[in-house]
Amino acid sequence: MTATTTANTLSVLLAVSATTTMLVSAEQAPKELPWSAEKCAELGYSEKFDACAEIEFCEGDAYGGGYNGGRRLNRQLRAMDSMEMYGEGQNEGEVEVWDEDVYYDENGNSITEDVEVGLYVEDEGAGRPATFGWRIPGEACAWPGPLIRMSRGKRYGLFVSGSGNEETITNIHTHGLHVPGHGNADDVTRSVSGSDVIIYEYHIPSYHMGGTHWYHSHWHHNSEHHVGGGAFGMLIVDDGENVGEGVDAGVEAFLSNEKILIASNHEDIYGPWIVNGVQREQYDFNVDEWYRLRILIVNLDDHSSSRTISFGDECEAHAIAHDGMFRFQVPAAASQTTFSIGDASRLDVAIRCSSDSTISIYDEVVASIKTSSGNTNSLPSPFTSSGEAWSSTRPGYLVDLRDVEADGAFSIKLDETNINEVQYSLEKPLCAGGTDFKFDTIQEWTLSLAYHPFHLHIYPMQVVSQNGECGENHEYGEYYDTITIKHSYRRLYTRKMGKCKVRLAFRDVGGKTLMQCHVFKHGDQGSMAFIHVVGGPAQENEPRVHKCASEPCDEPVNIPLCEGGSAEDY
Ligand SMILES: [Cu+2]
Fold this sequence. Notes:
Layout: E1 3-4, H1 7-17, H2 37-43, E2 51-59, H3 70-79, E3 95-104, E4 110-119, E5 132-135, E6 148-150, E7 154-161, E8 173-175, E9 197-204, E10 211-216, H4 223-227, E11 232-237, E12 244-245, H5 249-255, E13 258-266, E14 269-275, E15 281-286, E16 291-298, E17 306-311, E18 315-322, E19 325-326, E20 329-330, E21 338-342, E22 346-353, E23 357-361, E24 364-372, E25 390-392, E26 408-413, E27 437-438, E28 442-448, E29 454-456, E30 461-463, E31 479-480, E32 482-483, E33 499-505, E34 511-517, H6 520-525, E35 528-534, E36 545-547
Parallel strand pairs: 2-7, 6-11, 13-16, 15-24, 26-28, 27-35
Antiparallel strand pairs: 1-3, 2-5, 3-4, 7-9, 8-10, 9-36, 10-11, 12-25, 13-14, 16-22, 17-21, 17-23, 18-19, 18-22, 20-25, 23-24, 28-33, 29-32, 29-34, 30-31, 30-33, 34-35
The structure holds copper (II) ion.
Copper (II) ion binds next to loops.
């Protein structure tokens, strides 16, 4: 690997530098995707969906824009010297090009190309354009993509178009939604390219818990490349009614008094972290007012899988939800200023600050909190009017399984290229003793993960290990959709490997689902597997394709069942 500056990339640097004097003065929360019944009528799907929206994959020109990475990268390179990850550092103001990064085409063949991985300019602020992204048609290709907000009990039609480029294949995974993983719903084998348009059908059941989730591109072999370019965004399911026992006007006001924090870094680089697409986000808080901070962590470096996020001593913070699912008792009794959180995970906290403060990831300040007095709103409170915690309403897929006898047991071992020594395959699902999993069963799974974050699509998992085997990111008894035990590659050799036990309920939704390592590089290398949950409801395939320039478009992919036979009908 070599670091070079070329005439071609230098011109990109100059073009971007001109925009870097813009300072961040208020929160940069992304624009919301506009759902509407009118859009359904316009597209001819009024009877099928309650709300429709169009979202477009996009490709930008370059990374950059106020991306103050040089100084920090050099410092972290020194810390990583012993791993010999990078041959050379680079200086501020230089464009860095690393030769021979390997990517894959749609057939899985490796492509060798020069990849520009970053622009280093000394400045604060300014938005970050995406090299790959999701956008509202007509909007800029921004990092991160639009905020998708959904309501419980509604039928949504998401019309997804390609970037215009026939060579770029992608799709969308709604990380955290409890919806089918096959048919025309959240199936990662679906695909769109060019100017084609495919339809994702999402019925958010009325019992779905409200929470903080996200979406990202998930086309196999290109996930790292696409998400690493900015193709992701936050997805929120609104709380609606019946959130919990004891929820009063103050708690309701608190739950909707939200702030958004989408933290991401950059593929192959050890920091820096940016928030909401900017180098130093600023939040405006009223002094001593409670806010619900929705935090999403998108990590693109493949050698670490967890981090700490901390607030200054001027603030009090209580956890209220993990991975978009409320704690059983909300909020957590103890205030913390530092939280440990795994990759791809979300954390909602109740936070209030008495004066100006900062938000840091590890020891890097990524955002500031500016407080102002005089307009304090005292109504929002995470606690009930009597100052107590409240019990969240638990839908069937999120009930307490600690005292329930499991119907089945399974062990999972994640590696960089495989799960249970089987590489990702469309021909072969993962089987438990030669059979598929059964709908309406309770499972107890034992996870051996090293530092790999384990994400199971569709079905959240309750941590039932009591002695810290699941690591410091997870609390006994709470639900998560991604489990990350160890923090990084380096710590792997200094700490005992944990065997973390989780329980989960195969309820409401059946069919195929994906489990994966959520280090994007490892998923792309084959650390993913399908399982089938048989005997439950089946999701239809239609409507599926809205616009197809040349057949075939988004043909359904059927993974054979463990015991043989087709999985077309579950
Ligand atoms: Cu991994």
